[in-house]
Amino acid sequence: MELVYGHPKSLKPIQTKYCPGCGHGVIHRLIAEVVDEMGLQTKAIITNPVGCSIYADMYFDFDSVQPAHGRTPAAATGVKRMLPDHLVVCYQGDGDLAAIGTAEIIHAANRGEKFTTIFVNNAIYGMTGGQMAPTTLVGQYATTAPKGRDPETMGYPIKVCELLSTLGGTRYLARGAVDTPLNIKKTKKMIRTAFDAQMQGEGFTLVEILSQCPTNWKLSPHDSIDWLQQNMIPFYPLGEIKNTLSTAADSPSAAK
Description:
It is a single chain. The chain has one domain (24-250): Thiamin diphosphate (ThDP)-binding fold, Pyr/PP domains (Rossmann fold, 3-Layer(aba) Sandwich). The chain has helices at residues 24-37, 56-59, 72-82, 94-100, 102-111, 151-154, 160-164, 181-199, 214-217, 221-235, and strands spanning 44-47, 63-65, 87-93, 116-121, 170-177, 204-210, 239-243. Helix 1 packs across helix 8 (181-199) and helix 4 (94-100) packs across helix 5. The longest helix is centred in the C-terminal third of the chain and has 19 residues, at 181-199. The radius of gyration is 17 Å and the shape is globular. The chain is built from 10 helices and 7 strands. By secondary structure, the chain is an alpha/beta fold. Helix 8 (181-199) links the parallel strand 5 and strand 6 (204-210). A 7-stranded mixed sheet has the order 2-1-3-4-6-5-7, with helices on both faces.
């Protein structure tokens, strides 16, 4: 009998620490599958900072670096410049990337650093207690916004891909989700496009992935998928936000 599906070699066969319904496990699997398909397990390096992403090095069976909170792009810059033939991946959440590490990601993107960022957007601070993140939606409840996010005093949610799209160093910016099998499949294609571009030396690439956080949303895993579809996707539209790759004609579009 032909084996058509199996456990990725780049993902350790251990039990997850993530909460039930969390999207991190699915995202880990997608990254590992793409690394295996590209034959890069021995040349892959993930940089994962404080936050739920801190657990990533427990699961990936390749090298990792754990930088300080928000400083992942700086660490990835150094690693990639020293090892340009390696696949270097920043794995960051919304609080880490869009708040504590805003300056880091903007300047790395503007310089066109040749690593790939996987940006997990669940619109909340996950590990530290459900505080409001830069991506928290207007009206969304958080421990630091008990009456919901009020734009008059708390500002508006930041659309990271759209913000970075204005910078000259960015080459591929896309937004996927892990709420349905179809979107998971499209998101994997986005990751593959970004990794391929990195290995071809194209420039800065980032894939934002909308993910569920049932624990801090105070919802069941099933209801959290509904909430993501009804609230996050309308505000954070899925698809390629920017694609100026030399191989753009061959890259998959999430709109198809």
